[in-house]
Amino acid sequence: MSRRTKKSLLNKQSTSSSSASGAKATAALNAVFDRFRDSSDAPDTIGQNGTIEYLEELGVGFDEPVALVIAQLLESPSMATFTREGFLKGWKSINVNSFDSMKAAIPTLRSSLADNDTFKRIYLFTFNYAREPPSKSLPLDSAMAYWKLLLEGRFDTLLPVWFEFLENMEKEKNKDLKDGDAAKRKGVVITKDTWGCLLDFVKFANEDPGLEKYDLEYGSWPTILDNFVKYFRSKHEMDLS
Amino acid sequence: MDVPNKDDLEQTWNYLEQGIEKIMRDLNSGMDIRTYMGVYTAVHNFCTSARAVSTSTQQLHQTAGVHRGAAHLLGEDLYKNLIEYLNSHLEGLKQESSKHVDEALLSYYIREWNRYTTAAKYINHLFKYLNRHWVKREMDEGKKNIYDVYTLHLVQWGSQFFTAVQKHVMDSVLKQVEKQRNGETIETAMVKSIVDSFVSLGLDENDSSKSTLEVYRKYFETPFLEATTLYYQLESKQFVAENSVVEYMKKAETRLAEEAHRVEVYLHPDINGPLMKACEKVLIQEHAGLLKDEFQQLLDEDRQEDLKRMYNLLSRIPGGLDPLRTRFEVHVRRAGISAVDKIAAEGGEKDLDPKVYVDALLEVHTQYQNLVNMAFKGEAEFVRSLDNACREFVNRNQVCKSASTRSPELLAKYADSLLRKSAKSAEEAELEGKLTAIMTVFKYVEDKDVFQKFYSKMLAKRLVNFTSASDDAETSMIGKLKEACGYEYTNKLQRMFQDMQISKDLNDNYKQWLSEKSIKTSVDFSCQVLGTSFWPLNPPNTAFNAPEVINNAISTFVDFYNDKHSGRKLSWLWHLSKGDLKANYCRGAKVPYTFQVSTFQMGVLLLFNDQTSISYESIESSVGLGRDYLDAALGAFVKQRVLLVEPAGSKPGPGTTYSLNFDFKSKKIRVNLNTVVRAEQKQEVEETHKTIEEDRKLLMQSAIVRIMKARKVLKHVVLVQETIAQIKSRFTPKIPDIKKTIDILLEKEYLERLDGERLGYLA
Can you give the residue ranges of the Cullin family profile domain (chain B) (predicted)? Predict the structure, then answer.
């Protein structure tokens, strides 16, 4: 689904600039791209160092949500990587063709997260962005870091409980392990489905902070969220008694 | 007396009245035909006379014709006079009736009624002309309250006499009935006549030739029902205060039968419904609570007759049986649970004899099935309560506490014990009965997949070890399972059977092939070729270097087999194979002993053809067996003194040495050294449970994929329901397990999540 929305957005935004100015813009953007590309990077790719440098110069912190907005805009295939194709296409789509105009666009990109649809797009994008192939899911620490980044101000009351639950779950999985068995540690992983459903859950929880209407029996939530709600409820009961 | 002047009303009426009076009062003494004809003619003449009428009337009726107008008036005079006569006659009756009470009043009423109605018929005939012309015309013109002469009699009886006396009459009737209810004899024919007379008074307003039951219902039925209700209310209240519930039920039963009989003998059939209803209300409904409270006691004491009585009574009132069904269900469930508790306490859960367990379940079922049939007429709802209860205690009881899969496991084991060859094999007919009984329990088992797993394991063993008692019994059992669960459920079982048949032919063909090619083999060899996907058999979990003689035999067979079927791979299940060895070395034996051994044991023992004393390590490296198997094989030899261990008394293990015992002695010529280790069986049970879990996951996955493939997009909750519906016949899936399966399928990208709690199928 995220794929589809992305495509339609691009179509809408790719404005028909005249081919002359188009060529000029391409040259200017290529120049910016090459400035940050490292000789050790793969062809037509900006690697980790270049990305950090680039964001720094744009005045964007790597641990800022807007970094993800940029990554999504430029179709970054994985963490801290830009491709030339995505870079050109992305900036052109919002009529940006110089480093200065990139810098100027940051505030707009930053505020775009306030829009729910945009946020959802960025949120869903983040899963693939953060994923390390061939794994199909996110390791827990990485998922938690991104949740913290993205959900701040949106899920404040429950996020700590959710993290606590996940960490307990990991502990439970490894409770039989002895100290030396670090290699055998089994991590909790967050699947794409869980990632996607959590956003819906955030919306649900904001409307029903006590999670009273959550249907354990017949709801369509993934099992992990069912277990979370059970955890939340038993915790709640303990607090009451 | 002569026929009067046709124009003179007074004269005519006087003449008529005498005739009528005679008919009414004294018909029995007879009426001569002349008088009768006279009256008849007088009516005719009077009605047809062309007597002058007043001018005004004539003018008014000009268009209608003079004749008609005159007849109109004249008929009316006669009609009115007749009414007057009847009224005064009935007034006389009324006076007279007040002198009578009770039975006398009834007989007076009936006598007068009979006399009156008989007379009415005659008078009606005499006034036929009036009926045909004047009455008919009046009625055609839609005049109300004009009747033919007979009906007029009834109407007048009703209004002038009946209304005044009906209450007294009815009181007397009710007194009679009460007398009868109290056990006295009464003249029932009298009551019947009263009923008939009341019915006759019901006239249809729109069609006087028809009657309605209105009068009867109002003046007879209603008070009758009221009196009945009151009577039984009092009686039953008093009776239950002084007697037991069971006695009361007998009483109520009798009373209901009496009332039904009463209807037949002297009441109108129309009262049957309302009367029964009224009686049921006071006799049953108003004491239903009392009956229901007694139900448990009757169940506890297994009083079938009284339970039947209670069923019959309560089945007559709406909703009367519902609480019984609920209690019955609870009772049967408890009975089942406590029966299992008992055997679990006696036998210990772990080593419970399957037969004891199944018999306990069956006993409870049989007892209450009989009860349902005997006492509850096999009524479908009670059958359902029984089924619900049985399903509960079969799947949830003390024995199943550790795992709900215990029931199917024990049931399958019981089936195995029946179908396996044993010293006390049952007679064929008896066996068939027992297999049918197994199916009774099977019907209630929820985890049918578990039964299937264990059954097929044990069937495989019976077949492979040739320990099945009877092919017919096996076929019959598979047939029963197929009937209950369908082709898919028994498919593998049937294929296993087929493989055995095919293998038999195959071995025959092999022998023929050997003789055709003049190949001589050093061992007598036969084998079963079993399709891997149908048989629940695992490859051996140990390495094994088969003895050379065996390997030679096998390679000859493989040549033969590949000739017939190219491209098939044969793997050898050593752990299930066995053979006989002839021991020619024993000094004390006149006839050589035959050792029945497993193939593993054979591998060990044949080593002693070359050496008579071998170290453990050397045996281990030659045979290649895992230590578990090796130790078991050696252990059996040492125990039976086929081999002697050095140092003496030690357990098999490194550092020990084995030598052949040339002085081996046995009472039997055939010595069975192939004894199964029990620990192995236990491990097998655990493995079976593990495979069940795996199979269930797969079953849920394939069910979900199948549903989604067909439906493409489905609401989550609907998918869960449909999955349950599809799988229910095998086991009852838990919703969280289904959800987990959905999670897995989402992860595997068979499914995708859509908005609105829907799921989509990804091809």
Answer: 406-638
